[in-house]
Design goal:
single chain, about 425 residues, alpha/beta, 5-stranded mixed β-barrel, 11 helices, 15 strands, about 40% helix
Length: about 425
């Protein structure tokens, strides 16, 4: 047997192996997944009995509609190649699809066509989202990044909203039934006043098989007939499910769904401040405009002439007031003088003053006696002096024409 170099032997193996397996299709689970800075993917495909190194060039990877990861079961088409520097053979991948995706994809396409024909995706069936929801129902797994990311976004944007989680399975057996039960709970099994204003159905990314629960017709019907608006956020941006299309709003990711569900409190506060400032600015503008009009009017000739006339009238009024005060003062002094003169006259005419000069008054029960004929002998009367009154009885009567003739008659005090 001739001795040959390792390179020669490896080259012979390479030629025979590659010519024997120019095209292969294998099914296995991805492990040891690596993607260095070159962009190429290096991984191992394995089953329970063997493993096969595989390479996916960058150009082929860019055409994939899903993300590769360890543990993902896939069907890989490609060719066998020997890599001499490492002395190993490997699978050069030309296409990769998730295992079982072919049947699932056909089922997806059939359901999509049937629901499209029935109008389930039409815009007129979409319910509008509430502008400011007070209560949000979350339908997702209680663990993992999805619920954490949504709570972070909702808490940051609008912490006033009440969040209520209905934990569900998001893949595998019973996942579809779990989601349907959650929607039924929020829409029919709690009092109307306690129901959420909007529902978010969410899960992270995955293969078509992982997302199968959200491609079930029963889940689509539950979302379509929900009396509460539904936001669907299933998988990543590139993942589109039947649930996404039948929902009232589709979000690319759970975080985006949370952003769509609530307003941003910062924007609301800025809007509120703007609404507060707008009437104030309008009022200040009106005040400034009015002040300019007033300044224009007060500086005009038409405004100042009435002011001059008013000043003249005010001067005339002041002169008239001074004249009236002087005239009233003179009249008052004259009236006071007349009053004092009348008072003096009245004092002189006061009967008490006359009585003090030695005169008297005589009165009976009928009043004062002014003539002698008013008294008869035997009449009683009262003689009024300046300081006292004396009761008397008439004992004789004298002729009114007599002055001192004849004997005098006596008046006796009573």
């Amino acid at each position: 047997m001739d001795t040959q170099s390792i390179s020669d032997l490896t080259l012979q193996i390479k030629n025979r192996l590659e010519s024997s397996f120019p095209a292969v299709s294998v099914k296995g689970e991805i492990s040891n997944y690596r993607r260095p800075s070159s962009g190429h993917v290096y991984m191992t495909l394995k089953d329970d009995k063997a493993q096969l190194p595989a390479v996916l060039w960058k150009s082929t990877r860019s055409r994939l509609s899903f993300e590769l990861r360890d543990g993902l079961e896939v069907v890989v088409d490609g060719r066998i190649e020997v890599y001499p520097p490492a002395g190993r053979y490997q699978l050069i991948c030309s296409s990769i699809t998730p295992a079982g995706e072919g049947e699932l994809q056909r089922a997806f396409n059939l359901l999509l066509a049937r629901l499209t024909a029935a109008g389930y995706f039409n815009a007129e069936h979409k319910q509008p989202l509430p502008r400011i929801p007070e209560h949000i129902g979350l339908i997702t797994s209680p663990t993992g990044a999805v619920i954490r990311d949504m709570c972070d976004v909702l808490g940051r944007r609008f912490p006033a909203a009440r969040l209520q989680l209905y934990p569900v399975k998001v893949q595998g057996d019973g996942a579809a039934e779990s989601v349907i039960e959650a929607i039924d709970y929020f829409t029919t099994r709690i009092p109307a006043r306690e129901r959420p204003d909007v529902l978010i159905v969410a899960r992270g990314g995955g293969s078509l098989e992982d997302l199968q629960a959200f491609n079930e017709e029963s889940v689509a019907m539950a979302i379509f007939h929900s009396s509460i608006p539904v936001i669907s956020a299933i998988g990543h941006e590139t993942d589109v499910t039947i649930a996404d299309m039948v929902a009232d709003v589709r979000a690319g990711t759970p975080s985006i769904a949370a952003e769509l569900a609530v307003p941003d409190r910062t924007d609301m506060l800025e809007r509120l401040e703007e609404l507060t400032r707008r009437p104030l600015r309008s009022l200040l503008s009106k005040i400034e405009g009015t002040e300019r009009q007033i300044d224009s009017l007060t500086g005009s000739y038409a405004f100042n002439r009435p002011q001059v006339l008013c000043d003249r009238v005010e001067e005339q009024l002041e002169h008239m007031v001074r004249y009236m005060r002087q005239s009233a003062g003179m009249k008052l002094r004259h009236t006071n003088q007349e009053l004092r003169s009348a008072e003096e006259k009245l004092h002189l005419l006061d009967y008490r003053t006359i009585l003090k000069r030695g005169f008297t008054l005589v009165r009976d029960e009928n009043g004062y006696i002014t003539r002698g004929g008013g008294l008869r002998e035997g009449n009683e009367a009262t003689v009024v002096f300046a300081d006292t009154s004396v009761g008397v009885t008439v004992t004789g009567q004298r002729n009114g024409n007599d002055r001192a003739d004849g004997p005098a008659r006596d008046l006796h005090e009573c």
